[in-house]
């Protein structure tokens, strides 16, 4: 039996139903109430949502409706600044070639459309840092007419703040932002790149080099030993993340994702696997990766040979001992499937291994 999307729980960060994500590229002018995603490092400008239900008057430039897409909020729901707010604060700009948004037709629009999530449209703008700092100091001084408590929130904390849809927007916006800020100059000739007029791409006006958004495909692998009914778990070496993980790795050039599964499992723990079953995928914006989740069976010896460069530890664990915490990640979601012994419901790949 094949699981349907209806059976899935909203365990992974991109599960934003009933909202949906649309990133069809277009040059459109932002409305004052559209949202702007502003990043400093890996943090995004945001403020607590006005508590309309508590009778408090929302800040005029930043009225938001109830957040129907959120499940039980852990913290207070956040909102991102509107274009109108930043424009009024004089924080939109510069619109010149020096750091501005330059288009292939020579225009310098003040905003670049990123995507919509639900009924909110999100833009990227060049921002005047001085004016923005002034807005932030108004916020810290409690000038709530001009700004609620605007601050830069680490993207890793967005998921703790109520709205799945806004956390998704802030998280994915970071991936766009990271791509745009590292695509200012041509990698071949060094000229300043310009934005294409019809698709999400930057091009070199001098040598014609084209740069499209980059993604790194990777696999996450849940390995089951059918003889002992145990699952292979690991811990990464040299990272702060010390919880149990599954085997994971990036695809290499010239390789299929199925081949990546076999190679990574062999490299990291010295095991052979068979009966690959594709589960689902998950974008992971912090590293611009697209993760493909596979389940598979051990093929042969269960003796682990650890790649100590990659992993600190690996072991076979009883299904009941798999961690049950909700990490909104594909790894945690796959561990849930393994704990529930339901991985065989997902389709075997058509390849003979
Ligand atoms: Zn060039």
Ends distance: 20 Å
Bound heterogens, unique: zinc ion
Instruction: Give the integer mean of the pLDDT values.
Output: 85
Helix- and strand-based class? alpha+beta
Unreliable spans are 1-6, 53-74
Q: What is the total number of structural domains? A: 2
- The backbone outline, from C-alpha atoms, is globular
Radius of gyration: 23 Å
Descriptive overview:
With 353 residues, the protein is α+β, with helices and mostly antiparallel strands. The chain folds into 2 domains: 15-181, no CATH class; 216-345, Nucleoside Triphosphate Pyrophosphohydrolase, CATH 3.90.79. The protein has 5 helices and 17 strands. Strand 6 and strand 7 form a beta hairpin. It is globular, with a radius of gyration of 23 Å. It starts with 20 loop residues before the first strand and ends in a 14-residue tail after the last helix. Mean pLDDT is 85; it is low at 1-6 and 53-74. It binds zinc ion. Zinc ion binds next to loops. GO terms for molecular function: metal ion binding; NADH pyrophosphatase activity.
Compact overview of the structure:
By secondary structure, the chain is an alpha+beta fold. The protein has helices at residues 83-88, 129-140, 164-181, 257-269, 330-339, and strands at 21-22, 35-36, 39-40, 43-48, 78-79, 111-117, 120-125, 151-154, 194-195, 202-203, 210-211, 216-225, 230-236, 247-250, 273-284, 289-298, 311-318.
């Amino acid at each position: 039996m094949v699981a349907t999307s209806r059976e899935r729980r909203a365990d992974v960060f991109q599960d934003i139903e009933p909202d949906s994500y649309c990133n069809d590229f277009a040059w459109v002018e932002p409305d004052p109430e559209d949202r702007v995603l502003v990043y400093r490092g890996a943090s995004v400008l945001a403020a607590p949502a006005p508590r309309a239900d508590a009778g408090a008057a929302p800040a005029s430039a930043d009225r938001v409706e109830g957040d129907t897409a959120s499940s039980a909020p852990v913290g207070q729901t956040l909102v991102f600044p509107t274009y109108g707010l930043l424009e009024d604060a004089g924080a939109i700009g510069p619109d010149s070639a020096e750091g501005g948004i330059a288009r292939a037709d020579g225009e310098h629009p003040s905003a670049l459309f990123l995507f919509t999530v639900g009924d909110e449209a999100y833009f990227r703008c060049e921002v005047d840092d001085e004016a923005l700092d002034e807005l932030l100091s108004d916020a810290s001084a409690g000038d709530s007419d001009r700004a609620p408590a605007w601050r830069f929130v680490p993207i890793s904390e967005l998921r703790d703040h109520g709205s799945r849809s806004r956390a998704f927007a802030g998280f994915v916006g970071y991936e766009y932002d990271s791509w745009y800020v590292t695509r200012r100059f041509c990698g071949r000739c060094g000229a300043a790149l310009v934005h294409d007029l019809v698709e999400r791409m930057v091009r070199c006006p001098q040598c014609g080099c084209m740069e499209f958004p980059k993604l790194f495909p990777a696999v996450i692998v849940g390995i089951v030993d059918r003889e002992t009914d145990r699952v292979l778990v690991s811990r990464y070496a040299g990272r702060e993340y010390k919880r149990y993980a599954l085997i994971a790795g990036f695809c290499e050039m010239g390789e299929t994702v199925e081949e990546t599964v076999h190679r990574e499992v062999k490299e990291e723990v010295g095991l052979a696997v068979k009966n690959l079953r594709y589960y689902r995928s998950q974008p992971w914006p912090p590293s611009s990766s697209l993760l493909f989740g596979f389940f598979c069976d051990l093929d042969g010896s269960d003796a682990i040979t650890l790649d100590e460069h990659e992993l600190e530890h690996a072991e076979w664990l009883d299904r009941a001992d798999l961690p049950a915490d909700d990490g909104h990640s594909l790894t945690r979601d796959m561990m849930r499937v393994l704990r529930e012994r339901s991985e065989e419901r997902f389709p075997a790949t058509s390849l003979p291994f």
